[in-house]
Specification:
Elements (H helix, E strand, L loop, with lengths): L5 E2 L1 E3 L2 E3 L6 E6 L4 E7 L3 H20 L2 H17 L1 H12 L3 H21 L7 E2 L5 E9 L2 E6 L4 H14 L3 E6 L5 H12 L7 E3 L4 H9 L6 E5 L2 H13 L4 E4 L5 E4 L5 H12 L13 E5 L3 H14 L17 H17 L20 E3 L7 H4 L6 E7 L2 H9 L3 E2 L1 E5 L3 H10 L4 E4 L14 E2 L2 E2 L6 H5 L1 E9 L4
Parallel strand pairs: 1-5, 8-9, 8-11, 9-10, 11-12, 13-14, 13-18, 14-16, 15-16, 18-19
Antiparallel strand pairs: 2-3, 4-5, 6-7, 7-22, 12-21, 17-20
Length: 480
């Protein structure tokens, strides 16, 4: 899919070059070869996109909710029609195995389908005040929303962030990551094809320091959704605060995967592989990157895990391996540096730790055993196929270790003790708790973090609250 076609910005229903004329090249991380050139938005382009969205907002807001739902349903169907095309585009742009890319495309379609069904069900409450008054609330859209979309799940997160915004009557300006802009542009094109009016969805690829910062700090943007690193999230929050713009942040994680002796160990082993290696090469904010194993099963479980990890296939995403490449040279360098930090802190990994000699940003599935929870590889988000194994002796220690990080996105437990599972859920400082399945949940289940993992919720009905504001109406009806 290497192409001479150049991709432009989508503003007000038209694909146009950046005002500066600047472009950047997106690379296939499996080969390091160019895919295509993409227009690089800067402040002037963001201004144009926000202005376009503002002009489109009154009509879109006044569009009947059921009609908004029909259009989003049509977009979901159009995305599904192009599953193979979008999946290949995603794999070439991001590197992930093609089967995972297909799943991500289906997830994107499902988000638009799900929120299409909610569009005409966003309502308020009636509040009894006495017979002298009628009081009620209504939920209204915020206006122009900005979505800063990360590179790890580009097509999926287009649906997760944009679908609820449009369903609630907002308009959107989306800034996809410069590493992976192609699927967002294509979905913007599909939106126009199915009849979503120009300006309702604008897509402006570019770099964070220019396009991203301009969008986050724009005075005419009414809400910002950002998914990415803690460092950048803080900057986005500060830019939003200058304009008193509400900001939703979904940031990093260092999530504990806790395995007790009474668990189904075969199942726990499969889920541990999925949690850190076999999903986007560990480039997942909710990856199970810390494995906490009870001392009585530590040796057996970790030996089996090392064997399984060493058997995982690593290769180009189009070959559908177990583990694809990392997304970019920067990410590749970062993960390799953490492997070296792990060697200094713990010693050699029990499996992996190498990078293949051929082209592409590959790192082997890597496991460090006997890690102390205070080590950097246990505390800092690596965002790659690197697992830290920590031993514990009892339930209390496990729960304390699980919470002993700055992050609080996800926590998971494998046990057959129902009481223990729910004690764990109660104790965890995390936005999601998985019991006996990693990545449990779906489009319908709210997602977001505690502590340094951010605030606000996406997915499920909670996302509608993030994209609406409440108005109270109170009428005195008592006759004098």
């Amino acid at each position: 899919m290497t192409t001479t076609e150049k991709h432009d910005l989508l503003i007000d229903g038209e694909f146009i070059p950046a005002t500066s004329g600047e472009r950047f090249v997106t690379l296939n991380p499996a080969t390091e070869e160019p895919i295509t050139e993409v227009a690089a938005a800067d402040k002037e382009d963001i201004d144009r996109a926000v202005e376009s969205a503002h002009e489109a907002y009154p009509k879109w807001r006044s569009t009947a909710p059921e009609e908004r739902g029909r259009l989003l349903t049509a977009l979901a169907a159009r995305i599904r029609e192009e599953t193979d095309y979008l999946a290949e585009l995603e794999t070439r742009d991001n590197g992930k195995p093609i089967s995972q890319a297909r799943s991500d495309v289906e997830g994107c379609a499902r988000y638009f389908e799900y929120y299409a069904g909610i569009a005409d069900k966003i309502h308020g409450d009636s509040i009894p005040l006495t017979d002298k008054y009628v009081d009620y609330t209504v939920r209204e859209p915020l206006g122009v929303t900005g979505q800063i979309i990360p590179w790890n799940f580009p097509v999926n997160l287009v649906g997760r962030t944009i679908a609820p915004a449009l369903a609630a009557g907002n308009v959107a300006v989306a800034k996809p990551a410069e590493q992976t802009p192609l699927s967002a542009l294509k979905i913007g094109e599909f939106a126009l094809e199915v009849g979503i009016p120009p300006g309702v969805l604008n897509v402006v690829p570019g770099f964070g320091a220019t396009a991203g910062a301009s969008l986050a700090g724009h005075p005419d943007v009414n809400a910002i959704s950002f998914t990415g690193s803690v460092v950048t999230g803080r900057q986005v929050a500060k830019l939003g605060a200058d304009n008193v713009t509400p900001v939703h942040l979904e940031l990093g994680g260092k999530s504990p995967n806790v395995v007790f002796p009474d668990a189904d160990l075969d199942h726990a082993l499969d889920e541990t592989i999925t949690a850190i290696f076999a999903t986007n090469a560990g480039q997942v904010c909710s990856a199970g990157s810390r494995l906490l194993v009870h001392e009585s099963i530590h040796s057996e479980f970790v030996d089996r895990l090392a064997t399984r990890a060493s058997e995982l296939t690593v290769g180009p995403g189009l070959e559908d391996p177990d583990v694809g490449p990392l997304v970019s040279s920067d990410q590749h360098r970062k993960v390799r540096e953490y492997v070296e930090i792990g060697r200094e802190e713990v010693g050699d990994p029990i499996v992996g730790g190498k990078t293949p000699d051929h082209d592409g940003y590959f790192v082997e599935p890597t496991i460090f055993d006997d890690v102390d929870n205070s080590d950097r590889i246990a505390q800092e988000e690596i965002f790659g196929p690197v697992l830290s194994v920590i031993e514990f002796s009892d339930e209390r220690e496990a729960f304390e270790l699980a919470n002993d990080v700055d992050y609080g996105l996800v926590a998971g437990i494998f046990t057959s003790d129902v009481g223990r599972a729910h004690r764990f859920a109660h104790e965890m400082e995390a936005g999601q708790v998985y019991i006996n399945e990693w990545f449990a949940g779906g489009v319908e289940t709210p997602f977001g973090g505690y502590k340094q993992s951010g605030f606000g919720r996406e997915k499920g009905l909670e996302a509608i609250e993030s994209y609406t504001q409440v108005k109270n109406v109170c009428a005195r009806i008592e006759l004098e």
